[in-house]
Every structure is written in structure tokens, then in C-alpha cells.
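Example 3.
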Amino acid sequence: MIKYNRFILKNGLRVLVHEDPSTPMAVMNILYDVGARDEDEDQTGFAHLFEHLMFGGSVNIPQYDKPLQLVGGENNAFTSNDITNYYITLPAVNIETAFWLESDRMLSLAFSEKSLEVQRNVVCEEFKQRYLNQPYGDVWLKLRPLAYKKHPYRWATIGKELSHIENAKIEDVKDFFKKHYNPQSAILVVAGNVETEEIKRLAEHWFEPIPKGVEYKRNLPVEPEQLEERREIIHSDVPTNSIYMAFHMPARTEKGYYIADLISDLLSQGSSSRLYRRLLKEQEIFSEIHAYITGSIDAGLFIIEGKPLPNVSIETAEAAIWDELEKMKSEFVLDYELEKVKNKVESTMVFSEMSILNKAMNLSYFELLGNAQEVNTEVERYLAVSVEDIRNMSTEIFKKDNSSTLIYLAQDHA
Amino acid sequence: MLNRINPPAFHPIESVNIISPESLKLSNGSNLFMFNAGEQELVRIQWVFENAAFKANAPIINSALSAMLLEGTSKYTSAQIAEKVDFYGAYLFPEYNYDQTTLNLVTLTKYLDKLLPFVLEVLNDAIFPQQELDTYKRNSKQSLKISLEKNDYLARRQFNNLLFGDSNYGYIQKESDFDELNRDDLKALFKQQIVPANCTIFVSGKISNETLNYISNTINNGWVGSTEAPTFARPVFEAVLAQKVVIEREKAVQSAIRIGQLSIPRAHPDFPALQVLNTTLGGYFGSRLMMNIREDKGYTYGIGSGLGSLKHAAFFTISSEVGTAVCADTLKEIEFEINRLRTEKISEEELTLVKNYLLGSMLGSLEDVFSHTDKFKQAYFSGLTLDYFDYYTQQVKEITPKGLLDLATEYLDFSTMVQVVVGKI
């Protein structure tokens, strides 16, 4: 149970405070309601590049990191297809430094040409390190456009290609800031050894003078229902064959999301799960096998990925996965099995409440979804899922016509 | 009028308090430390074993022992063990490092009595079934094959091999090593190593007296095994000659770099001050390597340096992955930054920044009761007590620019370092 207080500043900034006196530290988490899904298709990777530029100095403060490190703080950020999230951890006695730094960069950036040039290079190196210079590193660059044809989830957060990042101009950066970085599109959470009254005073002092900006109205294309099986085969010099299957599944706030999430747990959570137990241990088909969901806000993907053993053909491997999916459709899972994955959801929730950063991020995210209070009732939505729900949802998503399959064939096996 | 130019006043960190454990000597021969804090109704128990020396020509058996610990006992199959742990929403997992093997149990306190006797069953009687061993061998070979395509992995193991030779720390695994593994060896090693006399137990969480009594009694009565500690290897490492190894990878778009040398362990009196020097060079986002090579030149997504403290050795290392076209230039800049530490005194301003950052990060790393335990373990296994952290804080606060210059001269010498590049140069 995460207790919190909530108030809204005159400029529309939502502020949540979670008091936890058991730590000497505090966290400031700022979530901006912008991600790769808000990008233009000819300028992908921009939300993430922009995240890097947020550290290149703001209008009144030439360097972001140094003053924070000087007061014993650390920070980082991440960008997803849905959101951009910035966080600071620092000794609670120095929380005002976080207010000073974050409010100035919400007010305006320095928009330095030098910073843009350097960060373009840094992001290109990140692109190479994570997506090009690793075996299977390009999987999301291939799988997303296979599964999505209209919705902007068809490109990865890093962007479609290096050239989109290389071509970014300072004017684009300014426009992006104006469009997405204002108090109305942000959620501020402060957690740790703090008191709400003091945080309220600081928030009003540092953030309230920031102009509210123009509201961004999101209007994304809806992904049409997939009506045919999709498949792509890549002959590549990867070390072993590999298979990835993607199925469309319900959006984050739908009941079906929780059902699909539990299906992924039944198939792949822990070493008692079905795919691990049956396909890796018993039938000796895979050396690795996983199922998970992308967890995105708009309708996301249910993914199964596996690496067959060298003596197993890709056809046999794929058929074995389908066999297990068919069982999910034709038979009820055991009550015991469902109880098992629900127990794991419950305990994981308790474990995650040990960290003030986790708590702050969860509050921000649920506030974005519509109501921070629901972070405390999330478990109930998992507990409400029945074995009938599991079978019905499996029937709905595990269809050939709803599948996109990507296969890497190692060249010496091809 | 709101002043956005000047930073708000701030408070320096005076001290760092680490929770003192309660300690018990169990009659079965193991030591137990208990850390009680936190609000969540959960408990973590860790059984830490020093890795025993086994046959000289069986370098990967210790890691195989760890990986296969939960794969079956006389009473329960691998599948039954996995079911039980998952059903109670718990985590039970072995962890292996060069010096130790740890079995971790993390569970809601309400299920402790369902799980603890079961874990003891594993500690008493793991049997390493042949079929499970075959699976382990097969899958390990395949995952090694994948690792061998990663430049960063190749660079790290080459670097370790140059510093530590074919010892446990530096051995280069081959696929065929997995073929040598057999049940009899695993069972023999298990009998020597996974015993109370070779175990230190750490219990952390919100622990009532009743819970502690339950844990210590259950472990005392339920876990038997040799009261004799096994034998341990005691390798000695000599400084190696400077050398540069380049592994060409034709299709690389980035090169992985490792540079470093042997260094001093945590228990050495200079260690905290050397940590300040390391942090200045490459230990945080604002470090000189990051500022120069990432934030000024954009050559890399990340570059860092670190001090590694092992049981029988210690080392300093720099690592990065950089565009192949700028690899040679990166090496020059690394040399430049190391030499600058030896020739130029750090400014008071930069030194204050590093000190404050380090102390804040120490405070921040003590976020929950588990991290207090982990800090204690760091000191304990280096032969130190909790007083070490007072010493550490004091040393960090007191080190001067002159002191850092002397440390750089003594401990960081690019001309004697080992360099590994995997990719293209």
C-alpha cells in the first residue's frame, strides 16, 4: 500500500508526495507524457534523442549534472514508446536542489548546438552498441514493423534508422520542447524522507511560475485488426537459429491486459512455467524460451521467443510452441496453476515496495494511466482473472492470423 | 523574485549509519548474521559458501555446482522444487562468483515455514541427476556460443586471462569443458563445499524474535553435513608485463576496449582514497573519461572505470564500446586522462564534487535492509568490520589534491597496463 497526497498547481502540473521517513534519501520523479509513439514517421528516435538533450543545460543553469552531484545526488532517465521519465535520487535534506534543476529545464532548455552535435553521436553509438553490434540486436527493428502497419509502435524507441538521428536540427528540438515539455503534460512525484507541506511550498515556488503551455492532443492512428499470418526470415551470421512470435493483445487499461499478462506468467514465469518445463526440460527442443508482454499503453504485443537446440529444426521448434498455445485454447489451466502465478504477482508487488524509486515511478505511471490510487488496487485486477478468462483470451490472441513470426537462420545452418 | 541562477543552499553528508547485525554461532558450525529493519513482511536468507578447490583441471565445476544446486534431491525432482518455490511466490536462486557460491531465498514471511525445510532438503541432499546435467551442458554450450559473438564478452575474458592466467579468475571457457563435467565430481564437490562449516548465513528483513528463533532452530536441527571446512586454493598473482592484444572482428561497427592492471584490495589502507581517484577518472557520469570521450567527443554511449576486489587479488579496469573509426583516438584520450591525474593537481572544486557525490551515493545505496546486509558482507568478507565504513567516510573527506596526485603516481600507470581491443582499430 503506497500512501500519497496529491495536488495540482495553477499551471496544471500534477504533484504527488509519498512520505517514507525510514530512509535518509528522497526521490524526484518527473514523467513527461511523450514517447516514441508521438514522433513523426520521418523523424523517429526523436523522443529519445531529446531525453539526452535534457542534460545539455537549461536556460539558467549551464550544467545539469554537476550541481546535483555536488549535493550527493544521482540521476538518470529512460524513454519508451509511451513515456519519457526522469529521476533524481539525493539526500532528502538537499531536495530543493532537485526542484531548482528540474523546474529550470521544464521552463526552457539552453538549446546548445554543441550539445545537439555531441548527443547525436552518442545516440548513434548507443544505436550501434545495442542494436547493430549484438547478435539478434536488430530484432525490434524488424519485429515492430512486421506486427504494426499503422500505429507508431511500428518503430523502436531508438528510431527506424541512424539517419533520422543524424539529421536532427536545433529547430526540431525547439519545436519538440514546445509541443511536449510543459507543466500540463508532466507528473511530478516526490518520495522519501519529506513532508507534504514543505514539498507543496517548494513546488509552488519553483514550478508554479512556469507558463502552462499549449495542451497536446494525441491523435494516433489505430492499428487495424490483423487478418493474415505474417512471417519474415532473416539469413544472418548469428550464432544459432532463433524464433520470435508476436501477437496483438489488449491495451494497458483493459481487463484483457491482466489476463494476457497472467498467460505470459503461466507460460514463462519461473522454472516451473509451462514453456520452460515442457519445451526446454522435457522435450529438449529449446536452450532458451521466454514469453512476455510489451506492456504498452495502447494495444501491445504478446511475445514468445526461443532458441532451438542445434539438432532441432526451426519447423519442429515452431510447431512445439503452437502445441502449447493450442493447449491454452482447448483446456482450462489448473486452478492450482493460476493461483501460483497470482501468488507471484502479489509477492512481487510487496518486494517492489522496498524501494522509494520504484514507488515514485509506479505512482507517476498510474497517475498517467488515469488514477494514482489504482496502484494500490492493481493486485485485485489480477486476482479477478478466472480460468475461463485465460482460455478465452488465449483463443482470442493465439491465432495464426494474429501472429507475426520472425526467424533468424544462422548462415551455416541455412 | 525567483532566483534561478544560483543553486539553493545544501547540506553536506556527515556520516553514514549501517545497521549492526545480531550474530549467532549455530551448533551445526555455521555463523548467522541477522539484520532487522523495514516495513514489508518479507525475509531474505542467504547461505554463502566459499568455493572449494577441486581438481586442478576442472575449472568450471564450481559454477556448474551452483547452477545445478536446485536440479533435484533424493526426495524431490527439479520440477517439484521449482513448483513449490513458484507456488509460494518466492524466489530461490543460486548465485556464483569467482570466490563464493550463494543460495538466496526471498519470501513473504508468512510462507517461510513452507519453504525453509524445503531449502534445507536441497542443502542436505542435492543429487545432480544425469538428465539435468545433460540439459545444463547442452544449454551452456549454446549460450557460450552466443556470448562468443559479443565483443564486450570477448574483451572481458581476454583481459581477465592476461591478468590472472588460467586460474579461476582468468580461465577461458571452452565448449569442450562442459563435456568433462560429471555427476561424481559434482557430488563430491557438493559434499565438501555445501556444508555448515563452510557457510555464513545472512538473514534480513522485518524479523521478529520468534522468526529468528524459528530460522536458527530449523537450520540447526535440519541441516547436517561435514563440520570440516574444505580446502581452498590460494593463488598468488604477480604483476604482468604491459601488453596490447587486438582481436580482429571483421564486421564490427564498434570495438570493445578493456584496459587495466592489478591493484589494491578493499582492506588496503589506501583503498578509499583510491576509490576517490577512480571515481574522478571514470566512476560516475561526470567523470573525466565520460566528459571527454562521451560528452565532448561523442565517441561512445558509455565509458567507465572500476576497482575490483577479489579474495586473492584486486584490479583496476577501464571499459567501453566505441565506434571503430574512433577507437585509436579513444585509446589516446584514455592515456591522456590517466597521465593528467599523475601530473596535474585536481582542483578543489572538482575534488569537492567527487567527494560529495561519493558520500551521497554511499547513503543512497543503503536504501533498504537488503542493501545494509550487502554493505556489511563487503566489509566482512574482506576481513573488516563495520568500522571500515567510518574509516572510508573519513578517508574520502580528508584526501587532498596532493594526496590524489601521489596515489595516481603509485597506482595508475598507463605504460604498464594491459590493453585489449576486440573489433577494429
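Chain B touches chain A through 73 residues (CB under 8 Å). The mean pLDDT of chain B is 94.
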